[in-house]
Amino acid sequence: TQLLEQSPQFLSIQEGENLTVYCNSSSVFSSLQWYRQEPGEGPVLLVTVVTGGEVKKLKRLTFQFGDARKDSSLHITAAQPGDTGLYLCAGPLLGNAGKSTFGDGTTLTVKP
Amino acid sequence: NAGVTQTPKFQVLKTGQSMTLQCAQDMNHEYMSWYRQDPGMGLRLIHYSVGAGITDQGEVPNGYNVSRSTTEDFPLRLLSAAPSQTSVYFCASSARRGAEAFFGQGTRLTVV
Fold it and tell me: Hey, are the CB atoms on A90 and B101 less than 8 Å from each other?
């Protein structure tokens, strides 16, 4: 059973469009992280959200942590080809020291 | 800035062979983890360590051993390689629980 469910699994859009990807769980997380992974590379951290209801912005990317700390979303405004990659959410389960779990990811393709 | 260094980058093994994937970090991080990533899937935790001398199992530990004799090094041993262990392996380190994880570039392993 996957603790973090990401949707959609694949997303292909045109440059300039907006999109939202989701990360959901039935478990509570003390924090959630979003990573982007490019082919042949390891994931690189985009943001960490910690407080329920928190919203963080990173240029055209907006991250939100659910009030109950069980879900998160990533919204990209005016997507660009450089946004193409695998987006992963991850987090340590509340009370579980050292162990982080990852979702299966959303593969985003932005066409010029 | 070396960060997390994994070796080798590519490896082909025959079924039944054993080998060790090396991982070293120079950031003095306490937490280190090994993940495997299969096509279309996120990262699944194999083993992790919260400090030198301390290791624990992740989601998919069978067929793998780890040890953590120093803060810097966290090798992953495949005891008797099987085709099901064909995957990309990532090592990661972080300063503390829930903090940003820094990933190596991965080891692409094929077992024939």
Answer: yes
